[in-house]
Design a protein that fits this description.
The complex is a heterodimer of chains A (185) and B (270).
Chain A (H helix, E strand, L loop, with lengths): L6 H23 L4 H17 L8 H19 L4 H6 L6 H4 L5 H16 L2 H11 L5 H8 L3 H37 L1
Chain B lengths: L2 H6 L10 H17 L5 H11 L25 H4 L10 H14 L13 E8 L2 E8 L4 E8 L9 E7 L13 E11 L2 E10 L3 E8 L2 E4 L1 E3 L2 E6 L21 E6 L4 E2 L9
Antiparallel strand pairs in B: 1-2, 2-3, 3-4, 5-6, 6-10, 7-8, 7-11, 9-10, 11-12
Classes of the chains: A mainly alpha (185), B alpha+beta (270).
């Protein structure tokens, strides 16, 4: 059966693992609770071993390749309505951030968090790959299994949607501030 | 501050993974390269869902999805000894194979050991034994292909795949079958697949078709098992984001009255 240990292949795989594991964990944690994230990464890294012969050569391509496997693992483990949750990218909540920073920045980020939550899962995913995983369009597209042009369209629409949602919150806040000022006068 | 950098300040996974995760990673990589186990948690969950009657259309136990030519290469001498008709495993060989399988199925960081697992079914094809182990508590099934020429005192290579519930609890109604776990292993550039499941009363033989191969499964005590040198799952090398690999295995059932149910459909157990 020739299944003996292939030291060279194992060493090369260890190199890939070292390069991508931490990023894969972070990728999964943005999309799943810690337990599911750990399991998905373990599953994905096992799949990466089995498919290692076809792993891409460059670091970003390898990250995108592994992200794609993690993503698919999460999708496979969630069926039906829960699948949408597998695509959503979580961001820190207002409460989580209070300890991190000053309160004016927290207000801004609370707006951003609220605006983020209005995005569709697909928009969050497109934007998340660019912002959090910091993949370029070709690699992000690879992770999603779509064409780069399709990804660019999704990313552009996601950015637009986020800006619109932020503007709407700003307008609402300004309106509220104006009303409060009028009532106070 | 750009919008992107503001967003990055909301990252729930900022910084490096904690020490526990780093340790888990160090342990995981060594387990993967040393054990060459094909276990996937996705596979385990799918079995549980199927037993629970919530299986998505076409969803099967899938331990991977590499689809390569199934032709046997000279680098796979043991696999090349495969025979379309299975033979029985001697009790001495079965003990060696089961021990090797139990050892191979040693736990992932989160999974329990299989030391108490008993043999559910086994078959020999050439120099390779396929064995299915089952452990009641916690309920867990492990399928292994073990390179073990007849009479050998030790196995020379093992591949294993774990799944959740599909052991004796999974029963098929009379004249029907319930597809159980499907594992696909990458072996030196080719695929080797294994599947097991249950057959109802009156089913005397199961014939499987996959990847250009037709083979008779071993059927005993209401269960079937077969391994073959080829794929069992659709190709899945490019992440598409839609679904996972699907089974390409087709089944013919031979009933006690001699009739054949061609291209039989698996039933879900009660």
């Amino acid at each position: 059966m020739g299944m003996g240990h292939d030291a060279t292949r194992a060493d090369e795989y260890r190199g890939l693992f070292r390069d991508v594991y931490n990023d894969a964990v972070r990728f999964a944690m943005r999309r799943a609770d810690p337990t599911d994230a750990d399991e998905a990464v373990a599953t994905a890294m096992t799949i990466a071993w089995r498919r290692f012969d076809r792993a891409p050569a460059t670091l970003d391509a390898r990250r995108a390749w592994v992200f794609g496997i993690v993503r698919k693992t999460l999708l496979n483990e969630r069926r039906g309505r829960a699948r949408r949750a597998a695509l959503e990218v979580r961001v820190a909540s207002h409460a989580e951030l209070v300890h991190r920073d000053d309160h004016s920045a927290v207000d801004l980020r609370a707006d951003l968090e609220a605006a983020w939550s209005t995005l569709s899962a697909q928009q969050q995913e497109a934007l998340g790959l660019a912002v959090f995983e910091q993949l370029d369009a070709s690699h992000a597209a690879k992770a999603l299994g779509i064409l780069p042009g399709t990804y660019r369209v999704r990313l552009s629409r996601a950015r637009d949607a986020l800006r619109v949602a932020l503007d709407e919150r700003s307008s609402a806040a300004a309106h509220t501030a104006s009303r409060i000022a009028q009532e106070a006068s | 501050m750009t919008l992107d950098s503001q967003l990055r300040s909301l990252d729930v996974a900022e910084g490096q993974p904690d020490a526990r995760r780093r340790a888990r990673g160090a342990s995981l990589v060594e387990r993967i390269v040393h054990d060459e186990s094909s276990t996937t948690s996705a596979a385990r969950r799918r079995v549980v869902w199927r037993v629970a009657g919530v299986a998505a259309a076409g969803a099967l136990l899938a331990a991977g999805g590499v689809l390569l030519p199934s032709a046997l290469s000279p680098a796979q001498p043991a696999v090349a000894s495969w025979t379309a008709d299975p033979s029985a495993v001697s009790s001495a060989d079965l003990q060696v194979a089961a021990d090797a399988c139990r050892a191979s199925a040693s736990p992932w960081p989160w999974s329990p050991a299989m030391r108490d697992a008993s043999v559910l079914l086994a078959e020999r094809r050439g120099d390779v034994v396929g064995v299915v182990l089952w452990q009641a508590e916690p309920e867990r099934q492990t399928s292994c292909i073990v390179e073990l020429p007849p009479g050998s005192s030790s196995a020379t290579a093992v591949r294993s795949a774990e799944s959740g519930q599909s052991g004796p609890a999974l029963q098929a109604p009379a004249g029907a079958f319930a597809e159980g776990g499907i594992a696909q292993f990458a072996v030196d550039g080719g695929d080797v697949s294994m599947t097991s499941g249950s057959v109802g009363q009156g089913v005397v033989a199961v014939r499987l078709h996959a990847d250009g191969i037709t083979t008779e499964a071993t059927v005993a005590d209401g269960r079937y098992v077969a391994w073959w040198p080829g794929a069992a799952l659709t190709s899945d090398d490019e992440p598409s984001g839609e679904g996972g690999p699907e089974s390409i295995v087709r089944y013919d059932l031979v009933l006690a009255d001699g009739s054949v149910v061609a291209d039989a459909t698996s039933v879900l157990p009660d």
